[in-house]
Amino acid sequence: MTDGAITPKLFALSWPLVAGNLLQTLYNLADVFWVGRVGADAVAAVSLMFPMSWMFVSTAMGITAATIALVSQHVGAGEDREADHVVGQTILLTIAVSVALATLGFVFRHPLLDLIGAQGAVYTEALAYIEVIFLSLPLTFLFFAFRAALQGAGDTKTAMWLMVVSAGLNVVLDPILILGYGPISGMGTRGAAIATFVARLFATAVGVYILLRGDWGVKLHLEDLRPDPKRLKKLVDIGSPATLDGWARSFSAVVMAAFVARFGPIATAAYGIGVRLMSVSWSVSGAVGQATSTGVGQNLGARTPDRAATVTWTAMAATMALLFTAAGLVVVFPVEAMRLFIDEQAVIDEGVTFLRIVAPSWAFFGGVMVIQGAFRGAGITKAAMALSFLSRWIFRVPVAVAVAFTWTVTIPGLGPVSSLGWGVEGLWWAYVAGAVGSFVVAVAWFRVGTWREGVLDHDPVPAADDD
Fold this sequence. Notes:
Structural class: mainly alpha
Number of strands: 4
Distance between the termini: 27 Å
Number of domains: 2
Radius of gyration: 23 Å
Mean pLDDT: 87
Order of helices and strands: HHHHHHEEHHHHHHHHEEH
Number of helices: 15
Strand content: under 5%
Largest sheet: 2 strands, antiparallel
Shape: globular
């Protein structure tokens, strides 16, 4: 990413990441599809565990966001051995954190389910599922570490192909282990978790082998598994804001879902379908953001920050153009988009309203995600985290409270102040406010240029007019 035409290289980096994100979604959809053949309690149990699983994934993504930044900048600077050292310390850190989380989760699994509110058959099914998921946490973290190491070096295809095989293995094992086949008796939700465990074990084992071989741009040296406090501290310092970023997104999703639920099952169903359609745009813009991380990191390592900025603007423009086109199709054909999922007319009508209000803002969401990727590639993960908080907790949630619900408060010196009371449509407009508001801030922040020095211990890059 440090020389040559930018657009084709961005495309080459991005499309395997898009495929990988969609395959990760396939993992979840396959579990829910086959668990649905067991019964509503089993589906409720798996659905109840999803926010918790996302928090674990967010933690893994936070650690590996630091890996992408450091590896890409070392590779761009031609410091391959330093990049390898970062990989070793990442493996060490991910093992330590994941084993600690898995142990705590397994020990406190019963109080955890009580806290979430699982009861009766749902409690039993959720317990069977989560016990195995906790055991698979180290595998999940190690695979994210492998993917981040190769991505920092500029290889996104290898992890994508591993995801293809792993997702395929999961899809094949799901019906066998969940419902039973031949001598294998059906295990319900535990079977879904075991299928995920086996698929992740395969992907992680192959990933570690690839890192030990070292033929894909970076190599895992066993001597690099000795703790290096300085490097570990840098990984934690850069990675922890990215972890908090993921947690903020997860909690805000729970809050917005709770808001929608207050308007009844029709609105909730329409919202669920609308968000599922939105998730495709997130997969695309998130993947381009990851590719931008690599491009920015490598160029900062090569001391070419102007090219890093060009990579970001190119990626942002392409992503927004694509998402504006997709949104245009959805706005023109909203009924057809909703009918892909449901035939109930009341839900379709509410879903059409949702799509016509929210879809045009997808491009702004995408632009923010690309700029967040640029900040992460520069190692400025606090800026990416701040944009997530701004989008969700400053613009979206407060706007939702102000415009969707009906309330009146008396403020001393001002008198009574009332909300707008737009109903559920106010929640849809809150998404628009979050997207547009955070986009304006993101562009302005990136143009300030405080990200240009990266996180390697180098002297500052002189400005073009500094002799």
